[in-house]
Amino acid sequence: MSFPPSPRARSGPRRRSLLAVAPAALLMAGCSAGSGDPGASGGSRPSAADRARARAARDSRELAERYEAVVAAHPKLAERLRPLRAEVVRHAEAFGDTAGPSPSSPGPGSPPASPPAAVPAKEKDALAGLAAAEREIADRRAKALLDAPGELARLLASVAASGAAHVYLLTEA
């Protein structure tokens, strides 16, 4: 028996595409050229890995700040967004972020946080903005993992897959 198509129009990735992307990201992480030992491949490799790790930490921290801004503007979304924001904070910590998610207290030596993005007045638009930010960061991480050493590539792949799942959760009602 076939089911009729859903009357509501869906946007964003489907479950099947998420399930197809996750193994591909893990496969790419397993095929990275790095050995996981930053000292094994010369002087230029560690600085590139350090830059990628710092960028990923900064992206996660700024994304957590964006979640905070949406929750502040739309308190009804707090329960829905709390677990996603908590994961984003854990991602920042996994990449070595020590500055914390608060925009008012950048860490020593960190560039000042970018000004928070304006939060749309409609909840649906605010969620779409978060989904777009998650998608952009996940795509950037998927590209960065190709040049990252082994362990960092695996971390980037895992966090990119998590970001893709967040996009799905943000776009599904």
Secondary structure elements and pairings:
Elements: H1 15-30, H2 44-73, H3 78-94, H4 123-144, H5 150-171
Helix pairs in contact: 1-5, 2-3, 2-4, 4-5
Structure commentary:
With 173 residues, the protein is an all-alpha fold. The chain is 62% helix and 0% strand. The protein contains five helices and no strands. Helix 2 runs antiparallel to helix 3 and helix 4 packs antiparallel against helix 5. The longest helix has 30 residues. 31% of the residues are buried. About 17% of the residues have low confidence.
Total DSSP helices: 5
Instruction: Give the radius of gyration.
Output: 18 Å
- Main sheet overview: none
First CA to last CA: what distance?
Answer: 26 Å
Structural class: mainly alpha
Q: Share of helix among residues? A: 55-70%
Write the H/E string, N to C: HHHHH
Number of strands: 0
* Unreliable runs: 26-41, 101-113
> Beta-strand percentage?
under 5%
What sort of overall outline do the alpha carbons produce when their principal axes are compared? globular
Kindly state the mean pLDDT as a whole number?
78
